[in-house]
Structures are given as C-alpha cells and as structure tokens.
Amino acid sequence: MEAVNQKSLERAVSMRALQMGNSFPCMVCVVGFLFGVCLASFILAALTSTGTFQLGIGRFSFSMLNLTFHSDSLSHSNNTINCNVNAKGTQRLTDFNSRKDKENEDSVSMLYSGWSCVLTKSESEANECLHKLGISRSILPYAPHLEDCKARTQLFERLDKRTGNENFPQWTSWKGFLDMHHVATTSDQTQNFRHQAVTKGAYPPWIAGSDEENYPLTRKVQRDIWIHQHPLNCSNPDVKFLVADWEKLPGFGIGAQFAGMSGLLAIAINEGRVLVTKYYNRADHGGCKGSSRSSWSCYFFPEASLECRRRALELMKSEDAWSKGILTVKENYTSKHIWAGPTPRIWGEPWRYLQPTTDINGSLITSHRKMDMRWWRAQAVRYLMRFPTEYTCSLLNEARHAAFGKLAAKMVHEGLAGDWTKGSNNKPRSEIDEYVWSNHKPWVPRPLLSMHVRMGDKACEMKVVEFEEYMHLADRIRRHFPNLNNIWLSTEMQEVIDKTKEYSHWNFHYTKVRRQDRMNVSMAEYEASLGRETSTNYPLVNFLMAADSDFFIGALGSSWCFLIDGMRNTGGKVMAGYLSVNKDRFW
C-alpha cells in the first residue's frame, strides 16, 4: 500500500512539473531550486559521508556525481592535508626563527666589533674602524663592562692631592663623580660641609666596605699612610726620605717584589721617612710612555707626592743630606731587615684580632706565627695599588672585553628596544648616568670565583696540588652558593687550561697568553720567553681581577696568593672567605 502511494505521489509531481515546464519563468525557478538542492546535497554529503544521492523530476534527472565518501579515505585525506599544512607551517616558522637568530647574531657581533674599535684605537682610528662597520660612535650603545679610563684617572688625580692649604684631599661622603656635581661646588651649605669633612680627615675613598668587612683598622691605617707619604711641606728640613729601587734580581717574581717593597715601607714608617721608589724593571718596556717608563707610576699612582719625589732626588746629590741621615737607600738595610723586619706598631697590634675566615682542609685558621706580616703586607700593597693609572685601566678593559665582551653585547642587545644600528636607542646621557651610575664598577658575570693555580717550579717551595683539588673546593663553594657558575682562572700551566674541558658545568674565563707546556721550566725562563711587557701586564690583570672577584681559591704557600688574599681583605672581601689548598710554608 505504501509503495502504491509513493508511485502515485511521484506521478502527480511529474505531471505538475510537466505542466509548469511549458512556462519559461517556471522553468528558471525550477532549475534554480534544483541547483540549490544539488549544492545543499553536496555539502551534506561532504559533512555526513552519505552515499549516492539521486533526484529525478520529470525530464530533469540529476545524479549527484556519484558522491560516495568513505570515512576511512576521507580521514586519510584530511590527515595528509593536515600533515602537509603542519609541515609547511613548521618549516616556515623554523626558517623565520633561523633568520631572526642570524639577524640577532649579526647585531651582537657588530656591537662587539664596535666596542673593539673604540677600546684600543685612537679617536681617528676608532672612527675609521666604525665607518667600515657602517655605524657611527654616536649610536654605539653603552658598554657596561668597560670603564671610561680617562675620566676615571682624572677623578683619581683629584682624590690624590690636597686643594689649597687643606690637610686632606677632597675625601667626603659624596662618592666619586657625584662630588663634582655643580651642587657640590656652588652651594654654600654644601661647601661648608665639604670643608668640615676634609678638615677632619674623612676616610680614603679607595677602601670599600665597613670596618667589619676589612682587616682591623684598615680605613684608619690607609689614611695615616697617605698622610705620612704626603707631607704638607716636603722641603721642611725635618722631612727625611728612604729612596729605593724595586728588586730586580732575575729570580724575583712580581709577588716577591711587592713583599720587598712592603718591608721598605714598614722601615720608612718606623723611622719617620717618606718612601720614594725609583727604578721598576717591570715597567721598562714600550707600553709605559714618557716619564712613567721604568717607574711604578706606569701602573699605579706614585707612592709619594710629586714634590717629595723631586725633593728626594735633589737630596741624593747632597753630601750633607747623606751625612746627616736625612736620606737613606735600600743598601743601608740588611735583607733580613727588609724581608722580616718589625711591623709598624703605631696602630697597636690589630692583627691579634683578625677574623678567622681562611679555610684549609675544612677548618678555619685562627692564628699562626706570621699574622703581623699578613696584616701589614695587606695594608702596604693596598696603599701602593690604591689608584690604577689610565694604562692599567686600559689593560683591565681589554681583558674584560676579551673574556666577557660577547656576553655583554648579547645582554645589551636583548635589553634594547628596537634596532640599535638605526639609532633607535640613541639618547643623551642624563645626570644620573654621569654622576651616580658612573661610580659603579664595570660589569662582569657574577658571582665570580677567582682561582689561581700555581704549579711549575713552585714545587721546590711548597706542596703543589693538582687542579682537581682546586675544583673540589670550587664545588664546596657552589654547594652553598648554587648560582655560582663562572671562574676567572689564572695559571702558568697549559695543562690546567686543557683540564677545564672536563668541567663543562663551569664557565671558565682567562687571559689569552701562551703558557708553559713543561713542568721543569723556571718562572724566570717562562717570563723571559713572553717578554717584559706581557709577563708584567697579564699577571697584574689577574691580580686585580682576583681582588675584585666574589670568591677566591688559591695556595697560601704562594706569595702571589698571599698578596691577593691581602688585597681582598682590605677591599671589603673579608666575609667572602678564602679557601686554600695548602698553608704558608713559614706558618
């Protein structure tokens, strides 16, 4: 019955369609209607994966292109399309990232090269170098790891001499360049405060940290040594002098020279004399220009005022000065007196309460036989090295740039908003840049551990320890300070440098200099092979880098490590501690 009804319905629809077909407008409407049905069916088939759809109306029969979609073939096709799309998208993203990385690397490299241009070249040479890179000095971003050596030296010159009839230099509580701000020089109230501070004798500005962070009485002792070495009137008949060359025998290393001059400074203070140094063989090279050649003043500010130095050299020509004892020289004293003479007692015996912060074999050293020598040599070397010269500042800049320059360039590049090569970050320096932030130390990756590994011919003087023992101590520090990753390594042995490759979880930094490849070479032979300039410059750079590092590992049996420890303990580093692989041979 249902089949008959279906056929009757189809016959009625067909007849009606035939009647409507005689009218052209009706035909258009029907065709449009059927086209819409066809399109809807196609979409429905695609969405529901149906089988064949067929519509026949009178003379119009539409077979829907035999739209048979099997679900498995559709799924496979979709997956293929998706995979192709994903693969192409991933490749485009990878290509984009690669291009971006390449652009960043090029920008960082150009920034590093730009800093290199202005670091070691004259102004005209630097501008030519920058021109070849396609950049100008005005758009070159600030280099955080480099100092303005000229400005810094001018500041030190101001802090190392008196103004007018003042008893002290311009040592006030206004730090560094801030003391040169116009408010400090024009305000009557500020001027009065500055005068009071200078008159009373503020503590010297080359000491960092409080009394608790340094050896006992460090700030007072440093001030008193400066006063002793800078009399108000060097021509006063009561002013006496001790004139001495630095030790220059071939077997004496830099550390021994420092120790010897510390002994002569002690003699000068005990006898009420102004110490004046003359020939310094390690400064007798082409890097030290003009009057600074062969002089301590090539590397650090002179130990005495210019007036006293001139007066002492004049008196050396006077027989009367010799006969009256106004002038003495190093040859007037025995080696024992110089190397093991009495420590100045004018400050009492502050070495008796040194804070025990030196670790040897897991225990703190509370006392030993040479505590007075340890305290005094630290004070003497700190005073002699109180202000580095422009030449030494440049050496440190070059060392930091070689070791940390690319890290600094990457850091600066990532922090800039926009393309620095187009001058997008070119802004004038503000007052806070010039007077406040300029007093901060140059950037290095911190925390930084300095490690001096002494081997070679030192075996005849102390127990030599392998590099692995030093690294065990480094791991001990890292257990307490897990953010410690960087080591500034100083050593004369290539074997030590090669072994750093075994410690990939540490970042090692060191000066690029040829090192010894044999254990049986004396230090004197090694230094001779490097030449005087290199054999002096790179150890001094290592010394000052070690003094400024956050932690230090060394061997107290080495005079060099002994003196580094003293510089740190008069530079606010007492509470950083000191891990030594052995003890001093004289303790």
Would you kindly provide a written description of the structure presented here, covering whatever features stand out?
This protein is α/β, with parallel strands linked by helices. The protein has helices spanning 2-21, 24-48, 71-120, 123-133, 149-159, 182-186, 188-200, 218-229, 254-270, 306-315, 319-323, 335-340, 371-384, 390-415, 431-436, 467-480, 494-499, 523-530, 532-548, 559-569, and strands spanning 54-57, 60-63, 240-244, 273-277, 327-329, 358-360, 363-364, 448-453, 486-491, 507-509, 551-554, 578-580.
Summarize the structure.
With 587 residues, this protein is of the alpha/beta class. It has helices spanning 2-21, 24-48, 71-120, 123-133, 149-159, 182-186, 188-200, 218-229, 254-270, 306-315, 319-323, 335-340, 371-384, 390-415, 431-436, 467-480, 494-499, 523-530, 532-548, 559-569, and strands at residues 54-57, 60-63, 240-244, 273-277, 327-329, 358-360, 363-364, 448-453, 486-491, 507-509, 551-554, 578-580. Helix 3 (71-120) packs antiparallel against helix 14 (390-415) and helix 13 (371-384) packs across helix 20.
The structural class is alpha/beta
Instruction: Write down the CATH topology of the domain at 390-423 and 430-580.
Output: Rossmann fold
Q: What is the strand tally?
A: 12
Biggest sheet: strand arrangement: 7-6-12-11-8-9-10
Distance between the termini: 123 Å
GO molecular function: alpha-(1->6)-fucosyltransferase activity
Transmembrane segments: 24-47
Keywords: Membrane, Transmembrane, Transmembrane helix
Protein name: Alpha-(1,6)-fucosyltransferase
